């Protein structure tokens, strides 16, 4: 009998060799959970196996396990009323199933650490977090967010306390909750679309329009679902660039996007044609925004009171700006 530490508690774990064909995938595991909820249908155990065994990381595990002659770390299994459920190691179980298809007798048995039934659902959540958020961190961001979302709902912890419990920063936890909730609310829990929504919700330029015109969410989600927006990076580089524009052209183009009258690709191309997305413009605009910031001006005035160096540099800047304006005919 060995011990497994979960959080600050220790649980007895019996080391056993079990027939892998009798083990069950854990449906609440975030990787399995994302499969189950991707299209709204609940697959059977066979369906879960069929999906897992097509994944690249499972195929890579199959090769590694075959070369090693078996797994190094045992599967962590929960014995619940005679059913052996794999809490940790579902991908390795799927890899075993792939190997067993070619040689059933050789890959019949697998090493397991069997936990007793007194482990709670909250302990299970903590266990999975130890392995995949604090330890290997091999879950995708969508899978991590699904875990955090369900942990939040079950624990009702404040975000800062929740962040400490799962080993992530508070900012990461809050963004995970924001994006996953948005995806749930818009009936789109496909893991491969995580990056689209992540880019969308963290973009400050887009946020301005979300605050004033809620229709942008409806349009954006529809275009993601239909594939009209081709890549997640386009959300940041194209839609985000237009949204950050402050002139009348940018605002008009954003309204056309929101109303579905133009695509983000056409809008960005038209915005780029104005010459306001180039490097020089961007740097000058950023320079202006820095100098007109109230806090920055207060800092200049405070430091200028003790040294003449700042006044000297400001005069040099003024001379350079006046010369540039003259050179470009302004």
Q: Strand share of the residues?
A: 5-15%
Architecture per CATH nomenclature, i.e. the level-2 architecture of the largest domain: Alpha-Beta Complex
Pick out the low-confidence regions.
none
Number of strands: 6
Compute the average pLDDT.
Answer: 88
Structure summary:
This protein is α/β, with parallel strands linked by helices and 330 residues long.
Structure description:
The protein is an alpha/beta fold. It has 4 domains: 2-134, Conserved hypothetical protein from pyrococcus furiosus pfu- 392566-001, ParB domain, CATH 3.90.1530.10; 140-189; 203-277, no CATH class; 292-327. It has helices spanning 30-37, 45-52, 56-68, 90-102, 121-135, 141-155, 159-166, 170-185, 194-202, 204-212, 215-226, 232-244, 248-258, 264-272, 279-292, 294-304, 309-327; strands spanning 2-6, 9-19, 23-25, 75-80, 83-88, 109-115. Strands 1-2-6-4-5-3 form a 6-stranded mixed sheet. A hairpin with a 2-residue loop joins strand 1 and strand 2 (9-19).
What's the structural blueprint in terms of helices and strands?
Blueprint: E1 2-6, E2 9-19, E3 23-25, H1 30-37, H2 45-52, H3 56-68, E4 75-80, E5 83-88, H4 90-102, E6 109-115, H5 121-135, H6 141-155, H7 159-166, H8 170-185, H9 194-202, H10 204-212, H11 215-226, H12 232-244, H13 248-258, H14 264-272, H15 279-292, H16 294-304, H17 309-327
Parallel strand pairs: 3-5, 4-6
Antiparallel strand pairs: 1-2, 2-6, 4-5
